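Example 3.2
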Amino acid sequence: MAGYGTREVLAVRFGDRVTTRAESFLNYHLYGEPDENIGIDYYFWVIRDGDGTVTLVDTGFAPAAGDRRGRNWHTTPADALPALGIDPGQVGTVVVTHAHWDHTGNLHQFPDARIVMSQAEYDFWTGPLARRAHFAAHAEPAELARLAAAHREGRLALIADQHTLAPGIELVEVGGHTPGELIVTVAAAGGTVVLASDALHFYEEAERDRPFAILADLPGMYRAYDLLADLAAEPRTWLVAGHDPAVRDRFAPYRDQAAVTDLTRPTGSP
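Structure, written as tokens:
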């Protein structure tokens, strides 16, 4: 798009694991298919403008949490960014798409950054329902406390519905997976990148209408899939799933960085 020709949008793969289809998709038995192993990748995302402005979308999981939960991890944002020519201190804004543990780790690495998330998400995870087992299993108390501390410090900006973060960068609250799940649309050279985060773990969820197993609101999750499908159908719009290894097939590698994918360069692979 005009005016955003130097903007980079990158996916950094920092971890992985092997899971199963039955664990990943809600009520998988309904599909009458045998279970099988599938890979899941863990990413955070970087938006870098030509003027050096850097926005981070999520911060992955902390190594200790990954070890405790049996996930493979390879790096953290503060360790990975210098290889991209980014000092962690350059990160001016961190968007937290939702407060699950694998997206809120390592916030301490960016003590001066503004944090942006949805009001509904923050209210839920600082409220009483977040302590119920089926929600609490997916969050780290210390990381929720860090978000609350950022709020007290005035570093946490809470938004609702749709919010313009910067020229060409829109945050859209969709819910479904969590009460205030956000997606991020980014105008870049040649088109628009839609960072679905966990509104879409795997492309299959939207393409085959198969909800993910972890959710707060099933109708809301379906509505999010419909919105993402509509966005993906628009010309020069590229949908990026939050955990799908296929991201690395659908987009080109970034320079010589094997773990980094250039989301402004789709390959045309299904």
